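Moderator note: this is an archived Q&A kept for reference. The question asked for a predicted structure of one protein chain; the sequence and the answer are reproduced below.
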Amino acid sequence: MAKKKSKFLQGRRIDPAPITSKTNLADLVDEAFLAYNAARLREACQLYTQKMLAPEVTVGLSLTGALTPAGLGISALIPLIRAGFVDWIISTGANLYHDTHFGIGLAMHQGSSQISDIVLRQEEVVRIYDIFFDYSVLLDTDAFFRKIIEGKEFQRPMSTAEFHYLCGRYVRERERQIGLRDKSLLAAAYEYAVPIYTSSPGDSSIGMNVAAKALQGNKLTFDPSLDVNETAAIVLAAKRNANSGAGRGKKASGRSAVFILGGGSPKNFLRQTEPQIQEVLGIEERGHDYFLQVTDARPDTGGLSGATAGEAVSWGKVDPDRLPDAVVCYLDSTVALPIITAYALAKHEPRKPKRLYDRRAEFMDLLLSEYKRSRRR
């Protein structure tokens, strides 16, 4: 009598085609990334492309780690924005500061982590692991930010999204003046109306220059309450299908996706939108629908950077019914992001940009209207 086949042996048989000189990246991911963290990267690519990029899904991206100095703004993040694959962003201020170097024509160079930092300091060379740049790059970028925030439009409190949108306009103009194109994430986000928030605006050279100008009487300040409520409003609008991109007469269930590169404060700020909606404002909701994280942090240390989608369910950050649509890939973001980007661009047609920055007031009205009906007030 034949033995009944175990239900645990229903997975795809491991029998890949040999890699050849004609194997493209998408086929490499689908056919050769079969186990261990390679399989998680394949699952990440497929989740992002097959589900998160559906027209009714709003994709929020968080950025930590020195990604833009390594050129990943130019090579990956800007192409994702141009394709309509990223709708809003939470970033460290440092990523946006170093992004600006490229937009205003300053140079970053490949280097070596083995060079003496004492020697580099004497040579006025700054090091980010194996990236080198002249100390003047910092001074010139500082001067750029100090100059633009003297403008009349900056003399008031604002959300970090509005600040970055205004800065992006200036960076885009500088690119135009010096004959550059698609070098700055800030400029691309301005062009496509992708709101960019920073969870800790004082924790970067941009915030340091804003603080320096405050000593001279500059009136620019960041309003963290605006950031908290605007980001919650974006997610609520996504779930209520207000920004799905579905045409009139078409029924589509709104979804919210989080794409997390690294961890830290931007990760929490991206995911806390659901507890803000549910726990604090008392609005009925269930959590984000899709969870994709690339991290090298362990979950067992208790740090947020390694916290899993399962743990996020207990906080109301992730819909418990959507856990099958959650992938954690334990890999360096500088390896995973280019592969995910290339895979998505090869496998999915561009989406119409949602231009969420232009609709912030509309989304805030939605949030306020539902909050007024809440018993939590």
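Archived answer notes: The CA atoms of residues 79 and 341 lie 8 Å apart.
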